[in-house]
Structures are given as C-alpha cells and as structure tokens.
C-alpha cells in the first residue's frame, strides 16, 4: 500500500505518492502539482566507478509530448534528443542538489524526471525540482538534504509565487530560488531590469516559502525514508597529505599559483606534480595514483588560505578589483554586427546576424505559450580557448546553458517585432577562457547588437562574484570578477547581468551548503558596482547606443499593414500571387495573421516595387486611381491589363483611344506597357480601366 502526502502550495495542491510506482529505484516520488504529474526517481550504483576523481551525478528531465496531448512532429514519431528547455531544467535541478552529496562519493547517481502530464498553471520544471529532492531524501543514497524550490513572478510591483502560465506572460520577473533548511543554495533569474532591492526581497520571500516545503518533505522522510547507506570514501589519506606538505613547502605552492597568467600557473603545477611523482617513487610507489588528487587538495587549501586569511589573490588584484578590460566593435568584415569583449584572459567575440521573422526558431515543446522565439543566442567553447586539444562534438549542456543565460540577459532590452521586424541571432565565440565567459558573452553581445543597428533600450553588462568561506557563517570573503582558479577552488560563482536601471539575469552556482542573506546582499551590491564600472568606462566609450541603421550587408525590411481580410488576395490561390511578387523582385515576404507584411531584401528599389504591388492589391478600387500595367490579354471587345500580380482590369475598346478604332490589335499588342485609370467596378465586380482618360485624371 502506497502512502500519499499533500500540502497547499501557492494556492494549488501538491501531492506526493511514495511506494506507488518505480519501487526498484533507490527512491521514487510520483509528484502531482495541480494536474501536472512527474515521476522523479533517484538511483545509485552499488559500487563506485573506478578511475575517476569526481562525483558522477547525472540529471535527466524527460519531456513527453503525450503530456500535452500531442504526437511529436517530423518523420520519426517519437521524442528525440533533449530540447533546450529540458537541458536547462536538468542544470537547474543539478545545481542545488550536487553540493549536498558527499564530495568523496564515487558511486554513479542518476536523478530522472519523467513528465507524464502538464497543467499549464503548475510548472513541470518546478515539480521535477521538488521531486528530485524528495526522491533523493527518502532514498538510501548519502545526501545532506532536503532542498526546496519556489518560482517567483512580479506583476504590478507585487510578488507572485509559482505563477501560472498567463501570469508568466506579463511578469517582470522569472526567478527560481532553491533552499536548504537554513540557507539559499541556488538562484536563477530572468528580469525586466528589476532593481536590486526588489530582487533581494523576492529571493528572501521565496526562501521563507521554501522552509514550509522542507517541513513537508521532512514529514515524508520521517515516515518513508530509508536509512542512508555507508559508502567507500575516496578522500586522500592523511599520510599522503603530510608527505606532500613535507616535500613541497607552503611558500613554494604559493609561488607556483601566485601569477596572473593561467598557462604559467598550469606549467608550474605540472612541473610540481612531476617532482612529487619522482619523490613518491622513492618512498612509496603505492602513493603515486593519489598525486593528482593530493596536489589538487593542497593547491586548493593554499589558494583559499591566501584569499581568506591574507586577502591575497593569485593574480595580485584587490578583493574588489576587476581584471584589465577592453572592448571593440566591427572587427569582423561583412557580418551584420560584431563586438569583442576582453577581461584578463577571458575573451569573447560575438557576431550578430539579422534575418526575416520567418527565420525565427520554431519551438515544439510542453509549454504551449511558446511556439517560437525571434532572438537566439548561441555560445561556443572550443578547446583552444583553454590551451587544450580535443575534437569538437557540438554544444554540450554547459554551452547550451551559457548561451541561454546570455540570451535571458538581453531579451528584456530588445525592441518589439513592430519596432524592429527581424529575427536576431548572436553567436559568442570563446577565444580565451579564464573565468566567467558567460558574462563576457553578455557584454560582447550587447556591443554587437548595437553595432548591427538593433535598437536595444540600453546596453547590458555582466560580471561574476566569487566566495571563499571559513569555519563560521560570518567568516567569508566575496571576490569581484573571479578568474578560473578562484572559481575552481572557491565556493561560489554568482553571475549577474543588467543595465544601469536594474538586473536582467542571475545565475548562482555554489559548492557549499548555501548562502546567508548577508552574502547574497554583498554579492548583488558588488556586481552592481562592477557592472556600472564596465558600462561607464569600457563599453559606452566604444558604443553607447545602437546605430540608427542596419549594416550594408544586412537585409533591409519594409513593413506594411494591410487589411487582414485581404491577406488571401496578396497570397493568391496556392500562393501564386505572392510567389510571383517574390520572383519579380527577389525579396522575402512574411505576412502575419493580423495583416503585418514584412518585405526583406538587399535592393531598396526592388523592395519598394514589391511593397507597391502589395499596396495596389490591398486597395479598394475607386474611380480616378492611376496604375501602370501590362497587356496580358486581347479580345474583340477590349484588352486585359495586369497592374499587379494576380490583379487584372479590362480596358473596353471604346476606352483605348480618343479616336474610333475597329480592332484592339490596331492599337495594342500582348506585352505592351500601358498607363490606365480606374473607372470603378462593373455590375459583376470587375475592374474597369480607361487609357484615353488618363490625362484628364492626372490633372
């Protein structure tokens, strides 16, 4: 007999069924939030994986189209690789969970979340976050949880917890906060330039609600939780640590890592490892497999002590000092826009491409409020950027996550489709990496968008803060602009992007069991200070507002508004009319259901010809309107003149000339270019033209 637990959460019922399904998993929770249903499971291997020096955690989020009553599109009628939303959801589940597993645990662990049904008003992503926490908490897998998560929106200045799909559409904020019993452990946010004080309020209020959820989870664990299993520890033996410290004095380790050049530091550590291997070979060969781990731990301890106790950073900077900065635009010829941003040994080049709205990305997923997006940001991280060599296998979860973070940071400042009817793609190429390339991508993207003539509201900049903690909650140091080593050995990567008005995106990764309110306040204050410095002193002197036109090689767009009832006339039967316009003018044409027509091309004259054709087709034909056309048909009683693709009118034989003619062929032949004036419509609704009266109406 299974057990069921329920609580009211933000006005809807959250129900957890335990021991109902998937009983062979280490832990399983069938989650119901409203009508959203997610099966969350946690499983672990019986033995540790050999030959690794990390905790092998895998997080899966499986979107099934049956959950929203759809059959997958395309030829293969089954779900394929994970969507971008699924990848991002896996990352947001992973980040608050990973720090709570033992650091020396080497058993494979998989957290799997299967979306079975979706209620648009109850987020399946949030349900999966709660489900993973519950499944792991009740399992026998070592885990220092539970965690809880809450989504927060902001509408008319009021905070909304776990907003519905319609509320999300008008919300100024999309914030997710995960917590432990005492601290905030994960923050992810997209925001419409929300002020820092409002963001802090939202974070802290979400943390309060998370405590209610944790109390609910504690009751489930109390009744259904398994005893946590013992595991084989893979921490470095103390005798090896002591032997290493005796051989490599602390001062020597400090000198090895105390440099602002990543390659020099790597070379120093590599040489040190070689010496340690040679030394251990002489005293105890069985210690050699531990060298990498032991040197890593020694290096980490040294760097943390230097920062926390001595306030010395590896590259010699002050605690709140940013590395040397540089920005430039237009470094790549012929592309629609380009910008490069450099911070120390982190360098990102961003290229902007503009296209018709028809090239916006189509989205086929579980969120039925999003079927496309016109702004796409992609991030690439080649091995040469860190001085390594490996084949390119396409973007991984990290690359997708970094691209989405920069995209989220820039969406709030983009113009509307009516203001700027383009699809926009920016690509961030990582030329060098030594800490926080995602935030350098934000800066470079902002530069390239303005260089491309995209009328963004304001420039956006991003920066990351780090953290080193001691034994107590008040023993900590926040670092501005962390480099790779400080991220690697530190406790936090707190990324914040925004404009001069407020925050547009946050992503927080930590390796400890949460942050206090004071740390969060200081990190947000420090990132604002750094962001304003970057905007005022580095980016704005290069370009402080968008260019007033798109580049020479970018497509140009003319936008018209036509009567929606006449869209069929413009398109024509089976698309004949619109395809004829495209063939004659070499342009691209997009028409929306509400009558917005976008004409895209490189030749202004041809674009205007296409626009004029569409304007003519859209006319209500009245007496006195003058058109130019081509004779396409000759009959005994008159000639037919095509004045726009698919649009013809008749010139009666009596209206061809001021003198009497016996045969139409005496005056006109097929293909003649003529000017005609509209006389109105006949009883059958056909358009009547005159050639002889043109001069009269021209006056």
TrEMBL record:
It catalyses: RNA(n+1) + phosphate = RNA(n) + a ribonucleoside 5'-diphosphate. InterPro entries: ExoRNase_PH_dom1, ExoRNase_PH_dom2, ExoRNase_PH_dom2_sf, KH_dom, KH_dom_type_1, KH_dom_type_1_sf, NA-bd_OB-fold, PNPase. Its EC number is 2.7.7.8. Keywords: Cytoplasm, Magnesium, Metal-binding, Nucleotidyltransferase, RNA-binding, Transferase. The keyword Kinase does not apply. Its main location: cytoplasm. One of its GO terms (cellular component) is cytosol. It holds the Pfam family KH_1. It comes from the Bacteria. Residues 624-692 form the S1 motif domain. GO terms for molecular function: 3'-5'-RNA exonuclease activity; magnesium ion binding; polyribonucleotide nucleotidyltransferase activity; RNA binding. The keyword NADP does not apply. HAMAP family: PNPase. Belongs to the polyribonucleotide nucleotidyltransferase family. NCBIfam families: polynuc_phos, PRK11824.1. This is Polyribonucleotide nucleotidyltransferase. It comes from Acetitomaculum ruminis DSM 5522. The gene is pnp.
